[in-house]
Amino acid sequence: MAPERPRGADAIPLAAEGPKGLSSAVEPSPPAEPGSALLYAALDLGTNSCRMLIAQPKGSQFQVVDSFSKTVQLGVGLEASGKLSRASMARTVQALRICQKKIEKHGVRRMRLVATEACRRARNARDFIRQVRRETGLSLEIIATEEEARLAVISCAPLVNPRTEQLLVVDIGGGSTELVWIDLSRVPPEERARSIMRLHRGFNAQGEAEARVVDWISVPLGVATLKDQFADVDDDGARFALMSWFFEENLASFSPYNAENPREGFQIIGTSGTVTTVAASYLNLRRYDRTKVDGLQMTSDQIDLVIREYLALGPEGRRTDPRIGRDRHALIMSGAAILQALMRIWPTDRLSVADRGLREGLLYAQMSADGVLEDGPYA
To answer: What is the DSSP string of 42-92?
Structure first.
């Protein structure tokens, strides 16, 4: 399936290096009292997982009040049938009932509940959306690939280094991978993170001295769909190599960067369960700690070291490795194949790890539009 891509500019950017441990914008503090402030909810229903955050504005950031995350495997069998299965829909509705109870418990009135690639592709997605509304009372919205990419980008704004002139944000999902190339060279260094936030208006709403989206792409290959493509390859190492090269082939139309240019001023930010799992494995975290992972910088050599360790472990070793986790072990190699391909072809040897993504972007966009952040609205 060919990647989806809008027409982008042909500019060849100057390159650069990434940030060094900028502060996190999400504060997982003790729960706030329900009703003590205006609360916002953001739900991301993807091909593999159902995840939700409930948060309240706090200064220029937000404070998480409650959260939910569950592997629902909504997209199981979608590649072959083109439809969501009854079993996967039942699992998902069960998870969404829990989300509905949390929303009701906290009295949340402002929310966006979105579905992504699996629902974009499934022939029976509209029937599923109606079933969710009927059985849980929740109104899911299927968002387009551009909005998914845009929300992932603005969630990563706090990790943008003031020295960054060219930025690549990569969001590896269950059913698709979004890549956004942004030129920050015309933006004053102290304004670069804020200029990323202002992209909530759209990728084409760009003026002078603003972040400029050079190009973006949504590749219909994520950790679940890429794994399914090569499920018939028995050898673990061969399957990994094939997945990595196949993903790279799907990036052929997204090449706004000349790899021979210097690496100064270039930054990659990766956001996904794959990226955070690789980071946790590198740090040898037997119990996941977001404060140690979010904002971490990893070199390509460190990433390769973790991937080689995964291959040496084999499927059974990965299944029992506490750093990977039972929910992630079956998908980690397809995600690692995507990550390795990206690090192989882009002009930097560093990756900034972001434990944030679509949910955080949804929260920032809602709060910014309402003008409840100290530095907002980012209009």
So the answer is: EEEE-SSEEEEEEEEEETTEEEEEEEEEEE--TTTTHHHHSS--HHHHHHH
pLDDT digits (tens, 9 = 90+) for 320-338: 999 998 878 999 999 999 9
CA-based nearest residue to 88, from 141, 51, 50, 61: 50
Q: What is the pTM of this model?
A: 0.82
C-alpha distances (whole Å) from 242 to each of 234, 250, 285, 303, 341 are 12, 13, 29, 18, 11
Q: At what angle do helices 300-320 and 332-345 cross, to 10 degrees?
A: 170
Place of tokens 């995350």: 69
Q: How many CB atoms lie within 10 A of CB 208?
A: 7
Q: Are 334 and 223 spatial neighbours (Cβ–Cβ below 8 Å)?
A: yes
Eight-state DSSP code of residue 288: -
Stated as kind and residue range, the H or E segment containing 191 is: none
Domains of the chain, CATH where assigned: 26-145 (3.30.420.40), 146-358 (3.30.420.150)
